């Protein structure tokens, strides 16, 4: 069987003809297998959805109970038969509930990894490499210049800034699913025990993380209570990246703008957004994680979905691995 007969790209997304399902489709389809709950991968309106419990729960929180007609939970490692195709979900280490999807038929196994990372993250199950013939990888940070620093050292930089500027409110822009909770968890791990204020857009998902046993410490709503001018002074306020530089931040004491993103490696991006304290914290693999992972899967062929495909494709060629870009559209990575 040729790999393309098992999985190939269509305008809706990655399609498996023998199993008649799509992986992370960007348009409504009959049956969708979803790697994780980020909005560009998990859309509402499919007739049937197969995903991990956490991904289904987060989709319900975001889209409401009627986001699909039929839901099925995929347990990690469990083999599910779909039209003679064996499908299984494996941890991706990206956000809570994130999974790679292995698709297998007639002795051929393809793994669609969705988004993934290998750096430590206490808020989700660590990535597990799955041996396969074809590995489908993202390439958000697929350039050798991207090497992410140790996450705790970035958290310590924020703690240090709080000590240095106790009169200023530290507004941290962080993607509301995954990054925000990881940042909070990291601050706890470096000894920041004070209550952390969170923007309303983060409340439901953060509460859900806590309900799944992820320790985030004391969280309080970032409301307008308190005396104007000293509100939030010396405190961490976590909010979606879109509020940085927005009027919303002006309710707090001399706001200091912090952004937690892999893109903060690029100083110009930090400057453009008026970020005073850029924290390099990513939920996507850096160059070393991507290339190490490709090796560990033992794949003889690599398909690259979104990001900087060229350098990864070239690296594969040099290392004797057949590789090509898939040119899937509809996936974004700006805020992550
Ligand atoms: Zn994602």
Question: How is this structure best summarized?
Answer:
The chain contains eight helices and 19 strands.
**How many distinct domains?**
2
Order of helices and strands: HEEEEEHEEEEEEHEHEHEEEHEHEHE
- Can you tell me the CATH class of the largest domain? Alpha Beta
Number of helices, counting only DSSP H or I runs of 4 residues or more: 8
Stated plainly, the CATH topology of the largest domain is called Metallo-beta-lactamase, Chain A
Structural class assignment: alpha/beta
Q: For the terminal residues, how far apart are their CA atoms?
A: 36 Å
How can the largest sheet be summarized?
7 strands, mixed
Low-confidence stretches: none
Heteromolecules bound = zinc ion
The average pLDDT score comes to 94
CATH architecture field of the largest domain:
4-Layer Sandwich
At the fourth level of CATH, the homologous superfamily of the largest domain is Ribonuclease Z/Hydroxyacylglutathione hydrolase-like
Characterize the overall form.
Answer: globular
Radius of gyration: 20 Å
Word description of this protein:
The protein folds into two domains: 3-145 and 284-325, Metallo-beta-lactamase, Chain A (4-Layer Sandwich), CATH 3.60.15.10; 151-279, Rossmann fold (3-Layer(aba) Sandwich). Strand 8 (85-91) and strand 9 (99-105) form a beta hairpin. The protein contains eight helices and 19 strands. The protein is globular, with a radius of gyration of 20 Å. The strands form three sheets. A seven-stranded mixed β-sheet has the order 7-8-9-10-11-18-19, with helices on one face. It has a six-stranded mixed β-sheet with strand order 1-2-3-4-5-6. Strands 14-13-15-12-16-17 form a six-stranded parallel β-sheet. It has 336 residues and is an alpha/beta fold. The mean pLDDT is 94. The protein starts with a helix and ends in an 11-residue tail after the last strand. It has helices at residues 3-6, 53-63, 151-164, 179-189, 200-211, 267-272, 287-297, 309-318; strands at residues 8-10, 13-16, 21-23, 31-33, 46-51, 68-73, 80-82, 85-91, 99-105, 108-112, 134-139, 170-173, 196-198, 219-221, 236-239, 256-260, 277-279, 301-307, 322-325. The longest helix has 14 residues, at 151-164. 24% of the residues lie in helices and 26% in strands. Bound molecules: zinc ion. Residues 36, 38, 94, 115, 336 line the site of zinc ion.
């Amino acid at each position: 069987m040729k790999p393309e007969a098992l999985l190939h790209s269509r305008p809706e997304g990655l399609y498996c003809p023998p199993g008649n399902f799509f992986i992370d489709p960007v348009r409504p389809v009959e049956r969708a297998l979803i790697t994780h709950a980020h909005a560009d991968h998990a859309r509402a309106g499919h007739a049937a959805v197969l995903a991990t419990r956490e991904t289904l729960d987060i989709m319900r929180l975001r889209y409401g109970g009627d986001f699909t007609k039929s839901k099925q939970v995929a347990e990690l490692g469990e083999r599910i038969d779909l039209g003679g195709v064996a499908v299984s979900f494996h941890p991706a280490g990206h956000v809570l509930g994130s999974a790679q999807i292995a698709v297998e038929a007639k002795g051929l196994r393809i793994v669609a990894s969705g988004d993934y990372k290998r750096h430590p993250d206490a808020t989700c199950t660590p990535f597990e490499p799955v041996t396969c013939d074809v590995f489908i990888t993202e390439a958000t940070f697929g350039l050798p210049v991207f090497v992410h620093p140790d996450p705790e050292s970035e958290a310590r930089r924020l703690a240090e800034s709080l000590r240095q500027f106790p009169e200023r409110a530290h507004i941290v822009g962080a993607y509301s699913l995954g990054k925000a909770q990881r940042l909070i968890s990291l601050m706890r791990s470096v000894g920041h025990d004070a209550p952390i204020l969170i923007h309303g857009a983060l409340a439901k998902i953060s509460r859900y993380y806590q309900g799944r046993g992820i320790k985030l410490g004391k969280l309080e709503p970032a409301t307008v209570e308190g005396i104007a001018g000293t509100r939030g002074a010396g405190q961490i306020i976590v909010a979606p990246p879109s509020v940085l530089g927005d009027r919303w931040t002006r309710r707090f004491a001399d706001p200091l703008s912090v952004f937690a993103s892999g893109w903060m490696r690029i100083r110009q991006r930090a400057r453009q957004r008026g970020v005073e304290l850029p924290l390099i914290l990513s939920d996507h693999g850096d160059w070393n994680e991507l290339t190490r992972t490709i090796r560990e899967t033992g794949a003889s062929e690599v398909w690259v979905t979104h990001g900087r495909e060229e350098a990864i494709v070239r690296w594969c060629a040099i290392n004797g691995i057949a590789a090509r870009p898939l040119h899937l559209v509809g996936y974004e990575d700006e805020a992550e």
